[in-house]
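Objective 1b. Sequence-to-structure analysis of LysR family transcriptional regulator.
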Amino acid sequence: MTEARLRTFVALADAGSVRAAARRLYVTESAVSAAVAALTRDLGVPLVQKVGRGIRLTPAGAVYAGYARQVLGLLEEGRAAARGAADPGRGPLRLA
């Protein structure tokens, strides 16, 4: 499970189709499919279900998408905090 795979899964969940997710991420459709297949293997449960030309999240996929969004948000917060600690003068501007 990698950050890139989580980002790809969230993009797919938001976009509703492999094609749309691939366009958002500037990757191939096969890269999106491979990332989601790898997550599915890692978790051992199906995350998406094909519906016509799009996808629908399975119940497990919907739950996982919420956690994936939280994890990605925490990673961004962690990066910002680390940058702020490395350069304290660069932190966010706070007005009283």
